[in-house]
Amino acid sequence: MSDAYIALADGRVLEARARAPGRTRGELVFTTAYTGYEESLTDPSYAEQVLTFSYPLIGNYGVRTERFESESVQPRAAVARELTDDVAEWLEDEGVPAIDHLDTREIVTTVREEGAMACGIAAGPDATPEDAVEEMEACVPMSDHVDIGAQVSVSEPTVYEGGGAADIALLDCGAKGSIISSLTERGADVHVLPYDATPADVAAVEPDVLFVSNGPGDPENFVAAHEVVDEFAGDLPMAGICLGQQVITSALGGSTEKMAFGHRGVNQPVKDLRTDKVVMTTQNHGYTVDDTGPLDVTQVNVNDDTVEGLDNEELEIITRQYHPEANPGPHDSLGFFDEVMDLAQSTPHVTAD
């Protein structure tokens, strides 16, 4: 007899096995990654989402905290064909519902055909299909999570020292830990600021580069980050990853749009329009740049031609939609961080009054 249920917005309720008990709801998405489940489950970009793994066995190499991208599990729930005991116990300890023993191929196909959708989960000995439906009906669209940044950002400025080669002000909209370490490994001191930092907060750092991180939800809801970008555009070099690309573009007059089911996995091919070289990338996003504003498209997704890279030499801006730090891989695009360091060391920039 089943002890877990997932209710989909299309009206179906699927039976499953409870691996970590609880009730929850969120936007149903999937990842095609076959490794990196620890990184995915701790990626802040999955906040308010229910993460389905398309790879059938999750947990085959255990759980190691040194692979975590944040201090806790970020999705509202995890769904898999089969979860090992290690992962199931970790999720239960974190208080995150988890279910398995269901056809994840059906879920992935549904999301691909109908788009990311609301879902509800009820797991445990007393769970009922009605519980899952009740959760699904209470699910809030991602665009309505207007202050989602508060869930994933630091509350106070934090400095990670890398040797003083550059000072980088990083707006933490849900930054992965490996982004910070990719910069400190290159000698930068990274000043991590809350997602709602003011222009004065940024100026106080006297940075060489403003860096807007990845994060969850609709980029239009990160109003404070838009204001910071608008304030320093043309005066301070800027870089952004994932949501950071979207925020920078929108703040400069461009626009973004929600994708049907997004890009989530470690095998997304990206073509550089300047070199015709194609690299494989790690991605996790449900929104994309529609109108690039003053920024030039330098890279596109081979599968669907969505914008993957933007530059503007005059404004000293470089952004990427994918994750160049790419833990657990591939590492084809790590050179992006060298470009950020080149920006930082180009000319003197903003200082505090």
Automatic annotation (TrEMBL):
<feature type="active site">
    <location>
        <position position="325"/>
    </location>
</feature>
<keyword id="KW-0028">Amino-acid biosynthesis</keyword>
<keyword id="KW-0315">Glutamine amidotransferase</keyword>
<comment type="function">
    <text>Small subunit of the glutamine-dependent carbamoyl phosphate synthetase (CPSase). CPSase catalyzes the formation of carbamoyl phosphate from the ammonia moiety of glutamine, carbonate, and phosphate donated by ATP, constituting the first step of 2 biosynthetic pathways, one leading to arginine and/or urea and the other to pyrimidine nucleotides. The small subunit (glutamine amidotransferase) binds and cleaves glutamine to supply the large subunit with the substrate ammonia.</text>
</comment>
<feature type="binding site">
    <location>
        <position position="246"/>
    </location>
    <ligand>
        <name>L-glutamine</name>
    </ligand>
</feature>
<feature type="domain" description="Carbamoyl-phosphate synthase small subunit N-terminal">
    <location>
        <begin position="2"/>
        <end position="122"/>
    </location>
</feature>
<keyword id="KW-0436">Ligase</keyword>
<dbReference type="GO" id="GO:0005524">
    <property type="term" value="F:ATP binding"/>
</dbReference>
<feature type="binding site">
    <location>
        <position position="284"/>
    </location>
    <ligand>
        <name>L-glutamine</name>
    </ligand>
</feature>
<dbReference type="GO" id="GO:0004088">
    <property type="term" value="F:carbamoyl-phosphate synthase (glutamine-hydrolyzing) activity"/>
</dbReference>
<dbReference type="InterPro" id="IPR035686">
    <property type="entry name" value="CPSase_GATase1"/>
</dbReference>
<dbReference type="InterPro" id="IPR006274">
    <property type="entry name" value="CarbamoylP_synth_ssu"/>
</dbReference>
<feature type="region of interest" description="CPSase">
    <location>
        <begin position="1"/>
        <end position="168"/>
    </location>
</feature>
<dbReference type="InterPro" id="IPR036480">
    <property type="entry name" value="CarbP_synth_ssu_N_sf"/>
</dbReference>
<dbReference type="GO" id="GO:0044205">
    <property type="term" value="P:'de novo' UMP biosynthetic process"/>
</dbReference>
<feature type="binding site">
    <location>
        <position position="286"/>
    </location>
    <ligand>
        <name>L-glutamine</name>
    </ligand>
</feature>
<comment type="subunit">
    <text>Composed of two chains; the small (or glutamine) chain promotes the hydrolysis of glutamine to ammonia, which is used by the large (or ammonia) chain to synthesize carbamoyl phosphate. Tetramer of heterodimers (alpha,beta)4.</text>
</comment>
<keyword id="KW-0547">Nucleotide-binding</keyword>
<feature type="binding site">
    <location>
        <position position="287"/>
    </location>
    <ligand>
        <name>L-glutamine</name>
    </ligand>
</feature>
<protein>
    <recommendedName>
        <fullName>Carbamoyl phosphate synthase small chain</fullName>
        <ecNumber>6.3.5.5</ecNumber>
    </recommendedName>
</protein>
<keyword id="KW-0055">Arginine biosynthesis</keyword>
<feature type="binding site">
    <location>
        <position position="215"/>
    </location>
    <ligand>
        <name>L-glutamine</name>
    </ligand>
</feature>
<dbReference type="InterPro" id="IPR002474">
    <property type="entry name" value="CarbamoylP_synth_ssu_N"/>
</dbReference>
<comment type="similarity">
    <text>Belongs to the CarA family.</text>
</comment>
<comment type="pathway">
    <text>Pyrimidine metabolism; UMP biosynthesis via de novo pathway; (S)-dihydroorotate from bicarbonate: step 1/3.</text>
</comment>
<dbReference type="Pfam" id="PF00988">
    <property type="entry name" value="CPSase_sm_chain"/>
</dbReference>
<dbReference type="InterPro" id="IPR029062">
    <property type="entry name" value="Class_I_gatase-like"/>
</dbReference>
<feature type="binding site">
    <location>
        <position position="243"/>
    </location>
    <ligand>
        <name>L-glutamine</name>
    </ligand>
</feature>
<comment type="pathway">
    <text>Amino-acid biosynthesis; L-arginine biosynthesis; carbamoyl phosphate from bicarbonate: step 1/1.</text>
</comment>
<keyword id="KW-0665">Pyrimidine biosynthesis</keyword>
<feature type="active site">
    <location>
        <position position="323"/>
    </location>
</feature>
<dbReference type="Pfam" id="PF00117">
    <property type="entry name" value="GATase"/>
</dbReference>
<dbReference type="GO" id="GO:0006526">
    <property type="term" value="P:L-arginine biosynthetic process"/>
</dbReference>
<feature type="binding site">
    <location>
        <position position="45"/>
    </location>
    <ligand>
        <name>L-glutamine</name>
    </ligand>
</feature>
<dbReference type="InterPro" id="IPR050472">
    <property type="entry name" value="Anth_synth/Amidotransfase"/>
</dbReference>
<feature type="active site" description="Nucleophile">
    <location>
        <position position="242"/>
    </location>
</feature>
<keyword id="KW-0067">ATP-binding</keyword>
<feature type="binding site">
    <location>
        <position position="217"/>
    </location>
    <ligand>
        <name>L-glutamine</name>
    </ligand>
</feature>
<dbReference type="InterPro" id="IPR017926">
    <property type="entry name" value="GATASE"/>
</dbReference>
